[in-house]
Amino acid sequence: MQSDCLTTLTNRDIDIAKAIPLYQSADHQVYWVGTLTAGEEIECNSYLIVDRGEGYLLEPGGFDRFQPTLDKITAVFSAPSITHLFFSHQDPDVCASLAAWLEFNPQLTVVCPSLWKRFMPHYMAYNATYKTMKDDGLTLPLKSGGTLTCLSAPYLHSPGNMVVFDSVSGFLFTGDIGAAVYADGKPRLVIDDWNEQVKAMQGFHQRYMGSNRAVAAFLRSVAGLPIKAIVPQHGVIYRGDEVHKFFQWLGALPCGVDYLFPVTSGKEANSRQQAA
Description:
This protein is α/β, with parallel strands linked by helices. The protein has helices at about 5-10, 65-75, 90-95, 100-105, 195-210, 210-220, 240-250, 255-260, 265-275; strands spanning about 20-25, 30, 45-50, 55-60, 80-85, 110-115, 130-135, 140, 145-150, 160-165, 170-175, 230, 240.
């Protein structure tokens, strides 16, 4: 029996001290196992996928998040059965717990964009086993018959950036794409009000997403996927019609170099083209 727990989830329901089920079936489960704080550091949405007893941890988080994330996982799953760690990009809020996870289980496979493999030793990951994603993507088969498909999304925001599509749940794990920072610091996992959500995500996307061309390329790359939810590393999850609303909003938003350095005249445009 399949249970899409995310459909009925409300912010009143969430207990951030526990793993929160987002999708459950006999062979496949997805949990939120992250940390939400009211501190100055940006929160980290970590996610555990369990497929026929094999675990995949996405966006493990910062060094100080290792123990609380492990505690949440242990309550619902045998943590030594995690086989893969997924890192969408190189930032410390995503990667800094890597050394702790490898000390916990040296047999873990690290999945990350190929651009960042040589940077990972700076997180004291000296003898890790890697499976890297090049710009043409990477697909990992699951025991249930589904797949985890890694897609390149460069400059959103990292020049080597990765999103992951889970074909079983229909969840697209997007890293910083879709992030939102609410000023009140209240824990949220789903959207209560779309207008408030826009306020919480606009500044982040205008500054952190590289350019409108990069956004357009990303939107083309995911256009054919049967996405049921967008599951970012920061902020809240987009469900159902919110997926389409977010893609429409992002596609129309001036961001990155196009927002910070708009072309204001034909003369300027020509000079930039010649310089390129």
